[in-house]
Amino acid sequence: MIMQAVPQEHANRAFSVFRMGQNGSQIGGAALGGGLTAVCGPGWVLALDAFCFLVAAVLRFFLAPEAAPAPSGGSMLRDLREGWREFSSRRWLWVVVAQFAVLVACINAVESVYGPAVADQRLGGAGAWGLAMSAYGVGLVVTGLLMARWRPRRILLVGNWGVFLFGVPALALALEAPLPLLIAAMFLSGVGVTVFAVNWMVALQQEVPEEMFSRVTAYDELGSYSLAPVGTALAGPAAVALGLSGALWACAALCLVLSAVVLIDPQVRRLTRRDPRRSSPDAPVSAVEPAPAP
Question: What is the pTM of this model?
Answer without folding.
Answer: 0.75
